[in-house]
C-alpha cells in the first residue's frame, strides 16, 4: 500500500529530512540524531523505501560531469488527444530530467541536460518529429542558481 503525506508521521519526516541533508547517513547516525533505536530507524527507512516514498540515489552536479547545455523546452501538441502519447515518448529519452503536463500556453514542459549546444539542437530536432508535436520553444539556462528537492519543513 502506497502512503500519502497525511499518513506519514513526524519521525518519517525527520528521517526524510536527515537523508535530504546527507543521503549516505547511516542508520546509527539517524537514530542518534532523532533519539530512536537503530532498529527503529532501519525499519522506518526500509518502509519508506518499500512504499516508494524515497529512493536513495547519487545526485551529480550536471555542469561538473560534462552537461554544458541545460534547457527548458515548451512543447505544443496537436491534436491535444496525443498529449499522453507524446509525453510517454519524450519521457523515455535519457536527456530528460523533468517532464510535466501544463495548463498554460503550451502542453508539456520538458527540462533537459545535454552535453553541448549541438547535442541540444539534435535533441530538439528529434522531438520535433514525434507525431503530435506541433511546435517547440527552447530556453537555454545560462546558469542554475539552485537545484534542490522540496523543503519538507514547508509541510508543517
Q: How would you sum up this structure, described in words?
A:
The chain is of the alpha+beta class and 156 residues long. The protein has two domains: 5-50, Winged helix-like DNA-binding domain superfamily/Winged helix DNA-binding domain (Arc Repressor Mutant, subunit A); 63-141, Lrp/AsnC effector binding domain/regulation of amino acid metabolism (RAM) domain (Alpha-Beta Plaits, 2-Layer Sandwich), CATH 3.30.70. Helix content is 35%, strand content 20%. The chain is built from five helices and four strands. Strands 2-3-1-4 form a four-stranded antiparallel sheet. Strand 2 and strand 3 form a beta hairpin. The radius of gyration is 20 Å and the shape is elongated.
Please render the helix and strand layout as text.
Layout: H1 10-21, H2 27-34, H3 38-50, E1 69-77, H4 83-91, E2 96-101, E3 108-114, H5 117-128, E4 133-141
Antiparallel strand pairs: 1-3, 1-4, 2-3
Helix pairs in contact: 1-3, 2-3
Protein name: Lrp/AsnC family transcriptional regulator
Keywords: DNA-binding, Transcription, Transcription regulation
InterPro entries: ArsR-like_HTH, AsnC-type_HTH_dom, Dimeric_a/b-barrel, Tscrpt_reg_AsnC-like, Tscrpt_reg_AsnC/Lrp_C, Tscrpt_reg_HTH_AsnC-type_CS, WH-like_DNA-bd_sf, WH_DNA-bd_sf
Amino acid at each position: 500500500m502506497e502512503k500519502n503525506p497525511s499518513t506519514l508521521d513526524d519521525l518519517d519526516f525527520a528521517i526524510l529530512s536527515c537523508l535530504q541533508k546527507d543521503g549516505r547517513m547511516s542508520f546509527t547516525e539517524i537514530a542518534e540524531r532523532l533519539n530512536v533505536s537503530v532498529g527503529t530507524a532501519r525499519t522506518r527507512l526500509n518502509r519508506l523505501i518499500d512504499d516508494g516514498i524515497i529512493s536513495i540515489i547519487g545526485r551529480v552536479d550536471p555542469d561538473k560531469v560534462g552537461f554544458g547545455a541545460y534547457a527548458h523546452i515548451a512543447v505544443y501538441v496537436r491534436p491535444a488527444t496525443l498529449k499522453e502519447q507524446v509525453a510517454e515518448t519524450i519521457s523515455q529519452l535519457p536527456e530528460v530530467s523533468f517532464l510535466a503536463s501544463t495548463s498554460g500556453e503550451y502542453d508539456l514542459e520538458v527540462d533537459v541536460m545535454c552535453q553541448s549546444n549541438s547535442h541540444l539542437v539534435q535533441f530538439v530536432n528529434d522531438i520535433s518529429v514525434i507525431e503530435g508535436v506541433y511546435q517547440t520553444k527552447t530556453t537555454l539556462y545560462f546558469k542554475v542558481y539552485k537545484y534542490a528537492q522540496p523543503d519538507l519543513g514547508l509541510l508543517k
